[in-house]
Every structure is written in structure tokens, then in C-alpha cells.
Design brief:
- The structure holds two protein chains of two kinds.
- Chain A is an alpha/beta fold.
- Chain A is 32% helix and 19% strand.
- Chain A has two domains: 289 residues, Glutaconate Coenzyme A-transferase (3-Layer(aba) Sandwich), CATH 3.40.1080.10; 25 residues, no CATH class.
- In chain A, the strands form two sheets. In chain A, strands 1, 2, 3, 4, 8, 9, 10, 11 and 12 form a nine-stranded mixed beta sheet that branches. A three-stranded antiparallel beta sheet of chain A has the order 5-7-6.
- Chain A starts with 13 loop residues before the first helix and ends in a 9-residue tail after the last helix.
- Chain B has a single domain, classed as Glutaconate Coenzyme A-transferase.
- Helices cover 29% and strands 21% of the residues of chain B.
- Chain B contains eight helices and 15 strands.
- Chain B has a ten-stranded mixed beta sheet, with helices on both faces. In chain B, strands 7-6-11 form a three-stranded mixed beta sheet, with no helix packed on it.
- In chain B, helix 1 packs across helix 2 and helix 7 packs parallel to helix 8.
- The longest helix of chain B has 22 residues.
- Chain B is globular and about 60 Å long.
- The chains are: A alpha/beta, B alpha/beta.
- Chains A and B meet through strand 3, helix 4, helix 5, helix 7 and helix 9 of A and helix 3, strand 9, helix 4 and helix 8 of B.
Chain lengths: 355, 275
Amino acid sequence: MLEKYMEKDKRMTAKEAVKRFISDGDSLVIANCLYSTPYALLHEIIRQGKKGLTVFQQGGIDELDQLILGGCVKTLVMAYNFRVAGERIQTVLERALRRGEIEIEDYSNYTLLTMLQAGAMGYPFLPVMSGIRETDLYRVERAFRGQKFGEVTCPFTGEKVVVVRGRNPDVAVLHVQRADRFGNAQLWGAMINSKWACLASHRVIVSCEQVVDEETILRSPHLTVVPGFRVCAVVEEPWGAHPSELLGFYDYDMVFRSLFFMQTMSEEGARAWMEEWVYGVTDRREYLQHYAERFGLRFLQELRARPYTSIPADYGATGRGAWDEEGVSFSFRTTREEFLRALEEKGGFVDGLEG
Amino acid sequence: MASKVRYTESEIIVAHAAKEIKDGDIVVIGQGIPMAAGVLAKATHAPNCVILTEAGLVDIRPFRNPLHIADPTCTRGYTYSCDMIDVFATIVNRGLVDVTFLGVGQIDRYGNMNSTVFGDYDDFRMRMMGAGGAPEFFGYARKAVLTMRGGRFVEKVDYVSSPGYLCGHGARERAGFPPGSGPKVVYSPRGAFRFDEESGEIYLHGVFPGHTVEEIKKEVPWDLKVADEVLELPPPTREEVELIREFAPEISAGRRLQLELSIPRILEIISGKGA
């Protein structure tokens, strides 16, 4: 059974959200990757030392490496993870795999996300394109042994169809441009896996650049990627996706990422990076302060987005209610008194007792 | 009459790969050389091609070479914002993609590709980036164009991430892939390879200026078939080279030089000189 979260005001700190809603051994999906990656929340997960997570990751750049370095990951369900280094350099992921610390299950982007789509819809499975059968993604199984792919017979054509199992992660973490305090979260730009990752999960933690009033959401519902009743926590976290990018706010920070990749080529360098940027700060505010002290604010400012605004969608209509200014019904052309009289004479009133 | 043009290895690949796109094609593209080829095609002979990425960005017009398929150079003006399920389920899998471009890690003689792992799956030599969108792109686009920088030809791929002609001789169609789909051409820094329509086996189709058939055959661990008449492929034009450098200087430079050239800026920032 999916829970709904009806508290009017779900604002809290990243610390509180991660503490309350993520437990050791949970399955976690990183809702949106490449673009608007929820780094602030992920760093808090690492700081709190969450362990044994099964992580669903569509396409990572450096965030998976960070979770692995934090000792958070047990199982990785993954389609893609960026790598800079050539064959001679061991990546963080490779080192962890060799030491047997993590287990991996490889999928394609489509088959991985279809598991979450099925989960979001409450289906036990969904078909995927059967050509996947001809690849080693289908043949080689590890973490999901026996449960990775299945095959059903189409009841209409008799054709054999490859299916994936519906999956419902315990928690999704998402960073967006804006949300209201109830959790209606609005994201624009590359939507990637955001919607299905959130809707499949039991709990959704949203961080955002700005908490906005409900009016903003009411006037732009097409931008809401996950409805508030599915969201358990709202964390206001400016620069919460740095060093990834967020339209309307900032570009990716390539230099910062290069630093990560250079340092993580060795185990000691990787530990030092984590010490400096994750463990050495208590929250995102300190992280930004440290960034400014270390590199100068100018480089952060250089990442700031310049406006390229959307043309507002006009949600206007006549705005006509059931009764006009003169108290006449648009549908019946009667006044309220005439309407009551009609109810009295022809509507078949039933007498009841109030209270 | 003939004027000299100087170009890099990546530039000649981009210029030739771009010609695989026809005007009006729907094209799925990833980062790097493929994106540069797509943008070059759109800027020259194929202004009406529709470029999309699996991030859910359709009909993008990037103003510089993107770092990845969802970065802000892809999102300044595009006509359809959807998500990854929409791109695969309603466009790729339905067979609407005319051309897909992919980079090669490992490839065998029937065009099967590995972008997952070198060596044994568990006792690996190296983990590559992973399959990503490639299995479905490769499976269901009308044609796949492969670009190869640093990739290798192997007798047998260590892991099949994306299906080519499988074991050849019609195996791909028997497995249920759309008739006529599959890898059509591989561009390496030395030349172009195509696939025999009957057997599905790769053969050398043309060589780039300064390279020879013998030299290319040495890089392939089996007795590579060679076209009856191997074409001498032309260098990129001056206009093409200029467009590539304008849009994607990083691609022109290639990975090593790109890294070398970006180090000063990285050092400047790391040293805190921006404070």
C-alpha cells in the first residue's frame, strides 16, 4: 500500500529528512541524474552513514562514486556511469567491485526505467522490447538472479514477450527548481527518469532551490513533476544540485568535477575529497562557504544562469461560476429564489435532522 | 584549384559521419563525436533533421558541443520536452528513428558491440560506462552509424551490450529486429567500414587520406574482408572544419589535447586565484 503524505507544511532540513525517511538497507532511486542531480541530499545520506542501500541509478557522473566511497551502497542497479580514466586507472566503482563490497546488475536505460514505470503503475511487470534477449544484459544476472528479466506469452498473438518486474524503491531523492511547502515539486529541463523514479517510490524527498507559495504552483501545474501528496519532505537547498546544472539557476561546474576525477584516481585522493567536501562540512551552506573560501566566489558566480524565460501559459477561462453577479444561474436562467422554489415544488425534498 | 585543408583525426570522422544524416531524418545522438556530426549535418545539408537525446529532449539546437546529453547547451530552445520513457517507448522502439550514432568500445565482425566490460564479467580488466541507451537504439533505429576513437575490433566481444548482426547470415532478422535495421558503417581515424548485406560481416569500404589497406588490416584480428574497389575518401572541406571548430573545439582537439589545454584553467581555480 502506498502511503500519502497530507501534512500541510513538510519543510525541514536535509538532516531531518534523511534521518526520518531513509534507513539502512533501503532501496534508493536517484530521481534525475546528469541534470539536476540531488547532490545535497546524497551528501547528507553519506554523512549520516546510511548502509546497505540498493541504488537504482539511470546514468551517473560522479554521484555513484561518492555514495560508494561513503560505504552506503550494497547493490547497484545501473545502466550507465560516466568514466574519464583509461584502462590503466582503477575507478572508484572498479575498486569497490574488486573488493566485493558492492554487487552490480546491468540494465539498459529503457529496461531499467521500465521497472520503475511498472512499479509506479502498480503492475507486476511490463513488456520491454524483446531484442534485449540477444544481449548479455539479458543473459548475465547477478544481484537480481532469477528476477532480472522474464518472458510471457502474449495472449493475443502467442508471441513470446520479454518483461521486467515492477519495482518500488523505498525512497526517491529529487532536486527541483521550486516546490511549495506541501511538496508539489516543479522541474523543467531534461526530465530523464524523474517522474517514474518518484512515482514508483514509497517516499519522495524533494529538495528545491526555492520554496514558493501555493499560488505559483496553482498557476503552473504543467511543471509539477510529482504531486505534493506523494512527497514526505521538502528541503530548501540553494545550489542543491551543484556541481550538476539546473536551468534558470546555474550551469554545471566542470572544473569542480575535474577536481573530483583527478583526486579519485587514487584511493587516498578519493578519501581526501570526501573528507573535504562531504564529511568536512555539516550541510550545504557550509559546503558553499568552503567553496567560496577555497576557489573564490567568482567561479560560482560564473556558473549563474542568464534568463531565457518561458512564455507564460495562459490558464484563463471565462471564470464564470454557477451564479452570476446578479445571482442568476447561467445554466437555468433562474434566480436563487426561483431555483429554491423549483426544488420545493419539483425536486422531491427529503426532511432530515441536522446534528 | 585544389586548396589545402588541414584537419584532425576527429574532424574527418565528424565530417563523414555527418553525411550519414539525410535532410528530414530523426536522429538520436549521444555526446562527443556523434553530437558534433549531428550539428554539422543540421548546419549544412540537413537543416530539417530532428535531433533528440534520450534525456527527453527532442528537436534540440545546441549552440556548442554538449558535455552530456542533458546539459544546458541542449536545452536552449527545443520543441518537445518529454522524458526517457517517452523517447524510447514512443519514438525509438516504434521505429521512428532514422539514424542513431554510437561510439565504439569493442566491436566484432558482425557489428555486435560491447560498452560494458573488458575481460571476464566478474574478473574484469575494465568497466566501461555501461549500455545506457545503446541496446534499444541499436536494436530499433533504421540505421546505426558507429564512430571509433580508441575502440577496438575483436574476434569476439567480451560482453554483448548492443546487438549487431548477431552471428550473421540473417540471424538479426530471425531474432525479430526490424528488417533492414542494424549497424551500417563504422568510421575509424583511418577509414570507413560497411557491412555485407547478406552475411552481415564487416568489410573495409574506404580509406582516409594517408592511410592504407594493409595498415588497417593489421588492426583487425581476423582476415578483414575488403571491398573490390576500396574508395579513397576525401578530406573534410574547409567549411566543415571551420564549423566543427566553431561548435566543438574540444572534439577537434581530441581527448588528450583537450585535457592538456584545460589544465591551466583548472589549476588557476584550484590555486584559489579567483578569490
